Automatic annotation (TrEMBL):
Domain Transcription regulator PadR N-terminal: 18-86
UniProt-listed Gene3D superfamilies: Winged helix-like DNA-binding domain superfamily/Winged helix DNA-binding domain
Family annotation (InterPro entries): Metal_resp_DNA-bind_regulator (IPR052509), Tscrpt_reg_PadR_N (IPR005149), WH-like_DNA-bd_sf (IPR036388), WH_DNA-bd_sf (IPR036390)
Cleaved signal peptide residues: none
Name the UniProt record assigns to this protein: PadR family transcriptional regulator
Length: 101
C-alpha cells in the first residue's frame, strides 16, 4: 500500500520535472533519464518514452527529430499549454507545501 502511494506521487512529480526542463530548453530522452537519476529517480527508457509520448499527445510537449551524427534523436520542448500547466502546478505545490510544512 505504501509503495503504491509513493509510486503515484512519484509519477506526478515526474510530469512536473519534465515540464520544468522542457520549459527551460529542449531535451532528449536519455538526457532526461540521467537528469532524473541525479535526483534519485530510477527510470528506464521503457518507462520514460511512453510518458513523453503521452505528453506530446496531450499537447504539453512538442517533439522535433534531429539528425545527430547520423542518428535520429527526438528532442522535446514545452508547448504553451505545457507552460500554462506548469505554472498552475507550481502554484498548487506552493500552497500545498506551505500548508503541510
Amino acid at each position: 500500500m505504501k509503495e503504491q502511494i509513493i509510486r503515484k506521487i512519484f509519477n506526478g512529480l515526474i510530469y512536473i520535472h519534465i515540464l520544468h526542463h522542457a520549459d527551460e530548453e529542449s531535451f532528449y530522452g536519455s538526457w532526461m533519464i540521467e537528469e532524473l537519476k541525479g535526483h534519485g529517480y530510477s527510470m528506464s527508457p521503457g518507462t520514460l518514452y511512453p510518458v513523453l509520448k503521452t505528453m506530446v499527445e496531450e499537447g504539453l510537449l512538442e517533439k522535433e527529430e534531429k539528425n545527430v551524427n547520423g542518428k535520429i534523436r527526438k528532442y522535446y520542448k514545452s508547448t504553451k499549454k505545457g507552460n500554462e500547466l506548469l505554472l498552475e502546478l507550481k502554484e498548487s505545490l506552493k500552497v500545498l507545501v506551505g500548508e503541510v510544512m
